[in-house]
């Protein structure tokens, strides 16, 4: 129940009055807890005074007094005055005092068992006093076994059990039977031993039912395309990789040495060697520049829009060793087409050659023959868009609903007309 403070009935608040009402009307077993350590802020005398104040509410109800927190302050360490006070309360109320500690898990099971037994006894006693008892007793038959002979057969209790009981009566809480097997550790015990909740993860492999128990904790193979990945894993892969890297470095050094030796034995003169070196340097610079430009997230400029001056072009060729006196990049040689009508020689005259003038069309006129065909194309485009415009849609993928509940469909009384019109 909620906390009930020791004060007059008329000064108690709503929560405390609900607790008092529950104690007065519920058919239950009342457990009254006493804090022996007095860490709750109330002395033992105040707690007993509160018990005496609300004891009339416990009338005709099974009652158990529980001395709680015996791990912080055992019952044996109480003063003689407190012990006499508790014994007096137990005698006047007729309730039994049980020792318990929920933190250390001491006596919790005994308290539960005692409460259940008292509750069952109370219910049986109530049923025995009811009027239905006669009808029930007529249906019951109690069989009493009769002795088959005069031989005395006393109860046989093993000596180890008797010694364990004696140690338990002397105050030893962790009593184990002599010769008994070790207590099986539960998952809760393992959890607290290995870091507690959120840290410990239960191992379900120990529950596997296999023919060979040694195979429980083996690594489960990963199968891809019907093949076990473990068969293709080399445990010495890192060592072999280092050996390959060392071998590659040796081969690279050897290739550089051979190239250097070949360069010394070359037939090129000093000027040609400089040109070769410049070409290689230019090639590496262009390659690096290309990689940098390629990594940029931007559109590529078309080649026809890339302008380059003829002077720069000639200088670039001269650096690479080409003769630039005959290079004229402004003139573009094109092959002219001849007309089929004039391709034949008529009256000894030479065929006439005529070049075709290329007229650049606008992108909007590509594929159209003339202005009339362009006009027809625009007309057909408008006719194709008309259904979408009538529906008020931006395109074929437009699924927007402008009005969820149209006013003319969902307001007013329904007349004689159709259901779709109100």
Mean pLDDT value: 78
Q: Strands of the largest sheet, in order across it?
A: 1-2-3
Total beta strand runs: 5
Order of helices and strands: HEHEHEHHHHEEHHHH
Radius of gyration: 52 Å
* Relative helix content: 25-40%
Compile the SSE list and pairings.
Elements: H1 14-25, E1 30-35, H2 44-54, E2 63-68, H3 80-93, E3 96-99, H4 108-128, H5 133-137, H6 159-169, H7 187-193, E4 223-224, E5 227-228, H8 237-264, H9 270-295, H10 310-319, H11 371-391
Parallel strand pairs: 1-2, 2-3
Antiparallel strand pairs: 4-5
Helix pairs in contact: 2-3
Quick structural summary:
By secondary structure, this protein is mostly helical. Helices cover 39% and strands 5% of the residues.
């Amino acid at each position: 129940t909620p906390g009930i403070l020791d004060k007059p009935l008329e000064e108690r608040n709503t929560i405390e009055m609900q607790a008092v009402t529950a104690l007065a009307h519920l058919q239950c077993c009342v457990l009254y807890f006493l804090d022996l350590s007095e860490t709750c802020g109330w002395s033992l005398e105040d707690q007993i005074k509160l018990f005496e104040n609300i004891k009339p509410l416990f009338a005709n109800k099974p009652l158990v007094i529980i001395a709680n927190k015996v791990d912080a302050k055992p019952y044996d360490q109480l003063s003689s005055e407190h012990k006499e006070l508790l014994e007096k309360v137990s005698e006047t109320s007729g309730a039994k005092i049980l020792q318990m500690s929920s933190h250390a898990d001491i006596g919790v099971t005994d308290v539960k068992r005692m409460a259940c037994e008292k509750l069952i006894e109370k219910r049986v006693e109530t049923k025995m006093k009811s009027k239905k008892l006669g009808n029930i007793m007529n249906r019951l038959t109690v069989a009493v076994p009769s002795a088959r002979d005069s031989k005395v057969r006393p109860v046989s209790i093993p000596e180890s059990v008797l010694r364990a009981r004696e140690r338990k009566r002397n105050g030893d809480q962790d009593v184990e039977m002599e010769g008994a097997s070790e207590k099986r550790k539960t998952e809760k015990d393992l959890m607290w031993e290995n870091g507690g909740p959120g840290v410990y993860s239960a191992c379900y492999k120990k529950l596997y039912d296999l023919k060979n128990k040694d195979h429980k904790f083996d690594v489960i193979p990963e199968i891809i395309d019907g093949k076990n990945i473990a068969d293709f894993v080399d445990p010495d892969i890192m060592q072999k990789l280092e050996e390959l890297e060392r071998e590659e470095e040796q081969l690279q050094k050897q290739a550089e040495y051979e190239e250097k030796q070949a360069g010394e034995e070359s037939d090129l003169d000093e000027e040609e060697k400089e040109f070769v070196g410049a070409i290689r340097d230019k090639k590496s610079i262009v390659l690096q520049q290309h990689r940098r430009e390629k990594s940029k997230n931007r559109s590529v400029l078309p080649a026809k829009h890339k302008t380059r001056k003829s002077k720069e072009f000639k200088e670039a060729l001269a650096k690479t060793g080409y003769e630039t006196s005959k290079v004229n990049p402004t003139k573009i040689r094109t092959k002219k087409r001849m007309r089929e009508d004039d391709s034949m020689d008529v009256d000894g005259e030479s065929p006439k050659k005529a070049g075709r003038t290329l007229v650049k069309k606008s992108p909007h006129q590509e594929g159209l023959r003339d202005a009339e065909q362009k006009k027809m194309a625009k007309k057909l485009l408008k006719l194709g868009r008309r259904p979408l415009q009538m529906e008020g849609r931006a395109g074929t993928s437009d699924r927007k609903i402008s009005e969820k509940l149209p006013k003319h469909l969902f307001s007013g009384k329904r007349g004689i007309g159709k259901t779709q019109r109100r």
